[in-house]
Amino acid sequence: MKKGLLGFIAILFFLCPFSIAAQEQLVFTGIENSSYATISKRVMREAYRRLNINVKFSDLPAARSLAVANSGRVDGELYRIKNIHLKYKNLIMLPVPIGIMEGVAITTNPQISLQDWESLAPYRVCIRNGVKFAEAGTKKIQVDVSNTNEHLFHNLGLDRCDIIVLARLTSIKLAQDFEKEMKKPVYYHVLQTYPLFHYLHKKNKKLVLELTEILKEMEQDGTIANIRASYIEEISSAKYGS
Q1: What is the CATH number of domain 101-193?
Q2: CA separation for the pair 174, 142 (Å, rounded)
Q3: Which of 67, 189, 186 is nearest to 132 (CA)?
Q4: pLDDT 10s digits, 214-231
Q5: Region of residue 31 (left: phi > 0; alpha: psi -120 to 50; beta: else)
Q6: 46 and 222 in contact (C-beta within 8 Å)?
Q7: Residue from 133, 96, 103, 102 nearest 224 by CA
Protein backbone atom coordinates (compact mmCIF):
# COMPACT_ATOMS: atom_id res chain seq x y z
CA MET A 1 0.00 0.00 0.00
CA LYS A 2 2.76 2.40 0.99
CA LYS A 3 4.76 1.52 -2.13
CA GLY A 4 1.70 2.13 -4.30
CA LEU A 5 1.12 5.54 -2.71
CA LEU A 6 4.73 6.56 -3.27
CA GLY A 7 4.46 5.48 -6.88
CA PHE A 8 1.32 7.58 -7.34
CA ILE A 9 3.03 10.63 -5.82
CA ALA A 10 6.01 10.11 -8.14
CA ILE A 11 3.69 10.06 -11.16
CA LEU A 12 2.06 13.30 -10.03
CA PHE A 13 5.49 14.87 -9.56
CA PHE A 14 6.52 14.14 -13.14
CA LEU A 15 3.16 15.13 -14.64
CA CYS A 16 2.86 18.40 -12.73
CA PRO A 17 5.26 20.50 -14.86
CA PHE A 18 3.45 19.42 -18.02
CA SER A 19 0.08 20.37 -16.55
CA ILE A 20 1.42 23.78 -15.59
CA ALA A 21 2.90 24.27 -19.05
CA ALA A 22 -0.41 23.35 -20.68
CA GLN A 23 -2.12 26.02 -18.57
CA GLU A 24 0.50 28.71 -19.21
CA GLN A 25 -1.01 32.12 -19.84
CA LEU A 26 0.60 35.11 -21.51
CA VAL A 27 -0.65 38.69 -21.30
CA PHE A 28 -0.29 41.26 -24.09
CA THR A 29 -1.10 44.93 -24.17
CA GLY A 30 -2.87 46.45 -27.15
CA ILE A 31 -4.43 49.71 -28.30
CA GLU A 32 -7.87 50.26 -26.81
CA ASN A 33 -10.93 50.78 -29.04
CA SER A 34 -9.13 49.53 -32.14
CA SER A 35 -10.61 47.34 -34.87
CA TYR A 36 -7.09 46.23 -35.72
CA ALA A 37 -6.72 45.03 -32.14
CA THR A 38 -9.91 42.98 -32.54
CA ILE A 39 -8.56 41.29 -35.68
CA SER A 40 -5.11 40.82 -34.15
CA LYS A 41 -6.58 39.24 -31.01
CA ARG A 42 -8.38 36.65 -33.14
CA VAL A 43 -5.24 35.89 -35.12
CA MET A 44 -2.99 35.59 -32.08
CA ARG A 45 -5.48 33.58 -30.02
CA GLU A 46 -5.44 31.00 -32.81
CA ALA A 47 -1.64 31.12 -33.10
CA TYR A 48 -1.12 30.59 -29.37
CA ARG A 49 -3.87 27.95 -29.28
CA ARG A 50 -1.77 25.94 -31.72
CA LEU A 51 1.05 26.19 -29.17
CA ASN A 52 -1.28 25.18 -26.29
CA ILE A 53 -0.80 28.59 -24.65
CA ASN A 54 -3.65 30.67 -23.25
CA VAL A 55 -3.52 34.42 -23.84
CA LYS A 56 -5.11 37.50 -22.30
CA PHE A 57 -5.15 41.05 -23.63
CA SER A 58 -5.02 44.33 -21.75
CA ASP A 59 -6.43 47.29 -23.69
CA LEU A 60 -4.64 50.57 -22.97
CA PRO A 61 -4.11 54.02 -24.50
CA ALA A 62 -1.70 53.70 -27.43
CA ALA A 63 1.41 55.27 -25.88
CA ARG A 64 0.96 53.57 -22.51
CA SER A 65 0.41 50.20 -24.17
CA LEU A 66 3.88 50.26 -25.72
CA ALA A 67 5.51 51.54 -22.55
CA VAL A 68 4.01 48.73 -20.48
CA ALA A 69 4.94 46.10 -23.08
CA ASN A 70 8.52 47.35 -23.25
CA SER A 71 8.82 47.39 -19.45
CA GLY A 72 8.28 43.64 -19.20
CA ARG A 73 5.25 43.88 -16.93
CA VAL A 74 3.43 41.92 -19.63
CA ASP A 75 4.60 39.47 -22.28
CA GLY A 76 4.58 41.77 -25.29
CA GLU A 77 2.53 44.02 -27.56
CA LEU A 78 -0.41 42.62 -29.52
CA TYR A 79 0.36 44.43 -32.77
CA ARG A 80 2.20 47.44 -34.14
CA ILE A 81 3.65 48.61 -37.43
CA LYS A 82 7.07 47.43 -38.56
CA ASN A 83 10.28 48.13 -36.63
CA ILE A 84 8.82 49.56 -33.40
CA HIS A 85 11.46 47.42 -31.68
CA LEU A 86 14.18 49.72 -33.00
CA LYS A 87 12.97 52.29 -30.47
CA TYR A 88 11.51 49.95 -27.86
CA LYS A 89 14.59 47.80 -27.38
CA ASN A 90 13.04 45.13 -25.14
CA LEU A 91 10.55 44.04 -27.81
CA ILE A 92 11.14 41.43 -30.51
CA MET A 93 9.21 41.72 -33.78
CA LEU A 94 7.94 38.46 -35.25
CA PRO A 95 8.63 38.71 -39.00
CA VAL A 96 5.27 37.42 -40.30
CA PRO A 97 2.58 40.11 -40.81
CA ILE A 98 -0.62 39.38 -38.85
CA GLY A 99 -2.64 42.02 -40.69
CA ILE A 100 -2.57 45.21 -42.70
CA MET A 101 -3.60 48.72 -41.81
CA GLU A 102 -4.53 51.67 -43.99
CA GLY A 103 -3.56 55.03 -42.58
CA VAL A 104 -6.22 57.49 -43.73
CA ALA A 105 -6.93 61.21 -43.63
CA ILE A 106 -10.56 62.08 -42.93
CA THR A 107 -12.15 65.43 -43.69
CA THR A 108 -15.60 66.97 -44.05
CA ASN A 109 -14.39 69.21 -46.88
CA PRO A 110 -15.00 67.67 -50.33
CA GLN A 111 -12.65 70.23 -51.90
CA ILE A 112 -9.59 68.84 -50.12
CA SER A 113 -7.51 66.50 -52.28
CA LEU A 114 -4.79 64.38 -50.65
CA GLN A 115 -2.33 61.88 -52.09
CA ASP A 116 0.33 61.39 -49.43
CA TRP A 117 1.72 62.74 -46.15
CA GLU A 118 3.30 65.77 -47.79
CA SER A 119 -0.08 66.91 -49.11
CA LEU A 120 -1.27 67.45 -45.51
CA ALA A 121 1.07 70.41 -45.04
CA PRO A 122 -1.36 73.29 -45.84
CA TYR A 123 -4.04 72.04 -43.45
CA ARG A 124 -4.81 71.91 -39.74
CA VAL A 125 -4.16 68.27 -38.85
CA CYS A 126 -5.12 66.35 -35.70
CA ILE A 127 -3.68 62.97 -34.68
CA ARG A 128 -4.00 60.65 -31.69
CA ASN A 129 -1.25 60.48 -29.08
CA GLY A 130 0.82 57.30 -29.25
CA VAL A 131 -0.32 56.18 -32.71
CA LYS A 132 3.12 55.70 -34.24
CA PHE A 133 2.24 55.68 -37.93
CA ALA A 134 0.46 59.03 -37.56
CA GLU A 135 3.30 60.51 -35.52
CA ALA A 136 5.87 59.37 -38.09
CA GLY A 137 3.87 60.53 -41.09
CA THR A 138 3.23 64.01 -39.70
CA LYS A 139 6.63 64.63 -38.08
CA LYS A 140 7.44 67.44 -40.54
CA ILE A 141 4.23 69.40 -39.94
CA GLN A 142 2.56 70.97 -36.93
CA VAL A 143 -0.29 68.90 -35.53
CA ASP A 144 -2.79 68.98 -32.69
CA VAL A 145 -2.76 65.84 -30.53
CA SER A 146 -5.77 64.12 -28.92
CA ASN A 147 -5.81 61.24 -26.45
CA THR A 148 -8.75 59.36 -28.00
CA ASN A 149 -10.25 58.72 -31.42
CA GLU A 150 -13.54 60.11 -30.15
CA HIS A 151 -11.84 63.40 -29.36
CA LEU A 152 -10.41 63.52 -32.88
CA PHE A 153 -13.92 63.42 -34.33
CA HIS A 154 -15.08 65.90 -31.70
CA ASN A 155 -12.43 68.38 -32.87
CA LEU A 156 -13.31 67.73 -36.51
CA GLY A 157 -16.94 68.52 -35.74
CA LEU A 158 -15.99 71.76 -34.00
CA ASP A 159 -13.83 72.76 -36.99
CA ARG A 160 -10.67 72.72 -34.90
CA CYS A 161 -9.11 70.47 -37.55
CA ASP A 162 -9.37 70.31 -41.31
CA ILE A 163 -8.17 66.71 -41.26
CA ILE A 164 -7.88 63.90 -38.73
CA VAL A 165 -5.52 60.97 -39.24
CA LEU A 166 -6.21 57.45 -38.01
CA ALA A 167 -6.55 53.85 -39.18
CA ARG A 168 -9.38 53.05 -41.59
CA LEU A 169 -11.05 50.13 -39.79
CA THR A 170 -10.83 51.86 -36.42
CA SER A 171 -12.56 54.90 -37.89
CA ILE A 172 -15.60 53.21 -39.46
CA LYS A 173 -18.02 53.12 -36.51
CA LEU A 174 -16.90 56.54 -35.28
CA ALA A 175 -17.36 58.02 -38.75
CA GLN A 176 -20.85 56.53 -39.00
CA ASP A 177 -21.82 58.06 -35.65
CA PHE A 178 -20.26 61.39 -36.64
CA GLU A 179 -22.18 61.55 -39.93
CA LYS A 180 -25.43 60.71 -38.17
CA GLU A 181 -24.93 63.37 -35.49
CA MET A 182 -23.47 66.12 -37.68
CA LYS A 183 -25.73 65.46 -40.69
CA LYS A 184 -22.83 65.69 -43.13
CA PRO A 185 -20.53 63.17 -44.83
CA VAL A 186 -16.85 62.55 -44.29
CA TYR A 187 -14.30 61.94 -47.04
CA TYR A 188 -11.48 59.40 -46.88
CA HIS A 189 -8.00 59.66 -48.39
CA VAL A 190 -5.55 56.75 -48.05
CA LEU A 191 -2.11 58.05 -47.07
CA GLN A 192 -0.18 54.81 -46.63
CA THR A 193 -0.70 51.06 -46.12
CA TYR A 194 1.24 49.19 -43.43
CA PRO A 195 1.78 45.53 -42.51
CA LEU A 196 1.19 44.84 -38.81
CA PHE A 197 3.37 42.63 -36.62
CA HIS A 198 3.17 40.89 -33.24
CA TYR A 199 5.85 41.76 -30.65
CA LEU A 200 7.18 39.60 -27.83
CA HIS A 201 9.06 40.93 -24.83
CA LYS A 202 12.64 39.64 -24.84
CA LYS A 203 11.92 37.49 -21.77
CA ASN A 204 9.84 35.31 -24.12
CA LYS A 205 12.47 35.00 -26.85
CA LYS A 206 12.31 31.20 -26.55
CA LEU A 207 8.92 31.38 -28.30
CA VAL A 208 10.09 33.34 -31.34
CA LEU A 209 11.06 30.50 -33.68
CA GLU A 210 8.09 28.27 -32.92
CA LEU A 211 5.57 31.09 -33.02
CA THR A 212 7.03 32.39 -36.28
CA GLU A 213 6.53 28.96 -37.87
CA ILE A 214 2.93 28.88 -36.65
CA LEU A 215 2.24 32.30 -38.15
CA LYS A 216 3.83 31.23 -41.44
CA GLU A 217 1.44 28.26 -41.51
CA MET A 218 -1.53 30.53 -40.78
CA GLU A 219 -0.44 32.90 -43.53
CA GLN A 220 -0.05 30.08 -46.05
CA ASP A 221 -3.27 28.23 -45.18
CA GLY A 222 -5.33 31.44 -45.39
CA THR A 223 -6.24 31.65 -41.70
CA ILE A 224 -4.99 35.22 -41.23
CA ALA A 225 -6.70 36.49 -44.39
CA ASN A 226 -9.94 34.70 -43.48
CA ILE A 227 -10.02 36.22 -39.99
CA ARG A 228 -9.60 39.71 -41.45
CA ALA A 229 -12.25 39.11 -44.13
CA SER A 230 -14.69 37.77 -41.54
CA TYR A 231 -14.29 40.85 -39.35
CA ILE A 232 -14.73 43.25 -42.27
CA GLU A 233 -17.92 41.38 -43.20
CA GLU A 234 -19.16 41.78 -39.62
CA ILE A 235 -18.68 45.54 -39.54
CA SER A 236 -20.05 45.93 -43.08
CA SER A 237 -23.19 44.04 -42.08
CA ALA A 238 -23.56 46.29 -39.05
CA LYS A 239 -23.13 49.36 -41.24
CA TYR A 240 -25.79 48.41 -43.75
CA GLY A 241 -28.11 46.64 -41.35
CA SER A 242 -28.01 43.28 -43.10
Answers
A1: 3.40.190.10
A2: 24
A3: 67
A4: 999 999 999 999 999 999
A5: beta
A6: no
A7: 96
- Distance CA(83)–CA(89), nearest Å, equals 10
What are the structural domain ranges in the chain? 17-99+196-240, 101-193
Mean pLDDT of 122-138: 94
3-state secondary structure of 55: strand
CA dist 139 → 66, 118, 143, 191 (Å): 19, 10, 9, 14
CATH (residue range 17-99+196-240)? 3.40.190.10
The Cα 131–Cα 166 span in angstroms is 8
pLDDT tens by residue, 110-126: 999 999 999 999 999 99
Q: E strands within the chain?
A: 25-31, 54-60, 76-81, 91-93, 99-107, 125-128, 143-146, 163-167, 187-201
Give the C-alpha separation, 138 to 191, whole Å.
Answer: 11
Total residue count of the chain as it appears in this document: 242
In this prediction, residue 23 carries a pLDDT of 53
Cβ–Cβ contacts within 10 Å for residue 30, how many?
A: 24
Between CA 27 and CA 55 the distance in angstroms is 6
Q: Do domains 17-99+196-240 and 101-193 have the same CATH topology?
A: yes
Torsion angle in degrees (nearest 10) through CA of 10, 12, 14, 15: 160
In angstroms, rounded to a whole number, what is the distance separating the alpha carbons of residues 157 and 41?
31
Residues 6+ apart with CB under 8 A from 66: 29, 77, 80, 84, 88, 130, 132
